[in-house]
Design a protein that fits this description.
25% of the residues lie in helices and 26% in strands. The chain is an alpha+beta fold.
Length: 213
Amino acid sequence: MDHPPCPEEFRGPVRAGIIRAIQGAYDEADETYAPDRGLGDHLHGLTVYHVATFNLRREFEGVPGVTFRSRGKGPEMSVGPYRLRWNKVGRGGDGESIRGSFPRGSRVAAFMAEQNQMRMFDDASFEHDGFPTNWIIAHLGNPLDHLVAIYFASPIETNGRSVTGWRDIVPIWSATDPEVEFPAAPVPGLPEPVEIGDLELELRDEDAPAAES
């Protein structure tokens, strides 16, 4: 079976540890969700982020090749030559696609996209087996459906404030196929197929005068 393109450093134990960390974060956030007591969606999202950060640090503490650090712009990991941050990018319901789902208002993620974009024209950008340096652990979920999907996604387009496009999208976990290492996902950059009805064509004589309005 052909796998989607993915840095070798992201496979195996790193992929498994990331999935455990994100799943655990949703489990804890789901337990605290109580909109009837004011503990609604916003708090659920914050809980997922902060618990995921704690879990990722714990998962990879002392793991060779993985460095966890927290700077003024928030925590991130280095996995080999790659830089990783993590963001919820959508709720994952009503046919929501990773193609149009991005970190909301994350200037750091936007800067990562800008770096990937600028370095795309520089050999140093793709010296690591043809992959960009900056990646997002992009997950979709909500308090009712829980964790829906996790992706490795490399940001490449930005409006200066937020990410607006992905270069690579690698699905690594799906609630519909939880045991599959790389579950099926839509190919990025292509529109969803749309069924259209029969077209009515009208032949027109080019020499005929146009009808008056």
